[in-house]
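Re: the request from the purification team.
They wanted to know what the chain is likely to look like in 3D before they choose a buffer screen. I agreed to run a prediction and write the result into the notebook, where they can find it.
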Amino acid sequence: MSKAAGTEQGAGLSLDDYLPFRLSIASNAVSKLIARAYEDRFGLTVPQWRLIAVLAEQPMTQQALVARTMMDKVMVSRAAQTLTTRNLVVRSAHEIDGRSHVLTLSDEGRRLYAEVAPMALDYEAALLTGLTPKDVTQMKRLLIRLEGAAAKLSGEDPAAS
């Protein structure tokens, strides 16, 4: 196994220098900030908002939502159930697979998305203040590469199939 960048042979793990820890802390901080706003103003949890945002792009099954959001099945199921109960999402039979359902935003769900999406973009802009457009592009590219490396290491790399 190779040495991590910036560590000495035999040195202990320093969480402040450990990239997975830094990514987790940054993700949690951003999620906590945004979750508070979504909960206070719209009564949405972060998982519920993620499902709404994904379903705004296209209807899909819960299994596809799990894959797209990288959330666990139980979290997706609970969020989908709550959104269905709130009439923000409509569940319909899958045309091909009779065992699954397709989730689609309802008219009310689309209206809510139209209200929340600009706020989400405002938060993103505020978080990225101080970064150049080049920095943002590079960060997105690097995050995509890290996601791909993690998928490959976990055996979930779709390119390997």
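For the purification team: The chain is about 60% helix and 5% strand.
Please add any questions underneath this entry.
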